[in-house]
Amino acid sequence: MEQEKIIQQEMYKRATELILKRYPKGWGGAAVIHSEDGQYFTSVSIETANSSVDLCIEVGSMCEAHKYNVRVTHCLCVVRDDENSQFKVLSPCGVCQERLRFWGTDVKVGVTTPDNTLKFVSLNELQPYHWTNAYQPEELEHFQD
């Protein structure tokens, strides 16, 4: 359990440091993914003139994990409203939850809490009624090839 807390704290540290560096003023957001082999991948949201084509903050990190063919164990997204605001954790949106399920339901994700504490839960805990429960595991195997 101690190793789990170390990973989570390191992820938060990396996310907040990236926000401070990348977005010294105004809004800022960063994501960090931790992989089974101990790597950390960071990303930010792309900025476009047409917000309908924006991607979530976590997507770049997920793509890096796919590029290096490593299993994701944790995902965290942190934002702040401006340079004078507190950092806050954003739970992954439904689309990112679907993307993260590629690595299994035991992937731990940072979630939004009322008191803004750092908390991680598994996708399985976050999605107890996920649509894949209607299928046997072997019926879903071809999605992870």
From TrEMBL:
CDD domains: cytidine_deaminase. It comes from the Bacteria. Its EC number is 3.5.4.5. Transmembrane segments: none annotated. InterPro entries: Cytidine_deaminase-like. One of its GO terms (molecular function) is cytidine deaminase activity. The keyword Hydrolase applies. Keywords: Hydrolase. The keyword DNA-binding does not apply. This is Cytidine deaminase. It comes from Clostridium punense.
